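Support request, please re-run this one:
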Amino acid sequence: MVEKVYVTYNEVGHPMRAHEGSNLLGRSLHAFETQGEQVHKLCQASAGRILDGFKPNLMIAIGGGGYVPARILRSFLKRPSSPNIPIQAIGLSLYEQLPSSKPTDPVETPGTKVTRTQWLDLSSLEMTNLVGKNILIVDEVDDTRTTLEYAVRELQKDVETAAQKLGSSEKTQFSIFVLHNKDKAKKGHLPQDMMDEERYLAARTVSDVWICYPWEATDIEEHDKLAASQAGY
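Re-run finished. Output below.
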């Protein structure tokens, strides 16, 4: 049975454990336990490093988990006298729903194939607007890394096609932000230059638990009660 951790918009239910390693922006991550991590504050704490290191002028949220973090993050990336960073969306599905003894509490497990449920319109201005941009891909969790690998690979291919049609040699650069990175062996892989150039950032690296985000809840009151009950874990 996979342990579940219930996350609220204000706090994470029980201590999230980080492990020794690097957050790829130069700060060492030491083992720690904390009883509350606010989703808003995870975005707020990461905003400065994203602005300085990635300098995004466009975000692509991976649905459905990346929509809310992207919108919260945009507020913290807003600079005075500058417009809001636009957000575009793609939909990818990797998780498969399994039978559960509780119909209101379906069990999901990582699948093996990424399915597109929503993508950018290659025939519209959406793709040409990506050429030459610093694009920040946003998702809530880096689990097996399969979805992130797919998103980066396919977006790079589509942008290259759009650049060729435009006759443009402008460089498009992708970076990634996730709220949580699970400390586990990954099935997917990201471009080596992205990792070498530190264009990947996880606000927190956590143990391999099932994270229940509030935007997934069908009963938010029950969700918050479960999160509160784990506060003393």
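Strands lie at 4-6, 21-22, 28-29, 58-63, 87-98, 107-118, 134-142, 173-182, 200-206, 210-212. Confidence is low (pLDDT under 50) at residues 12-37.
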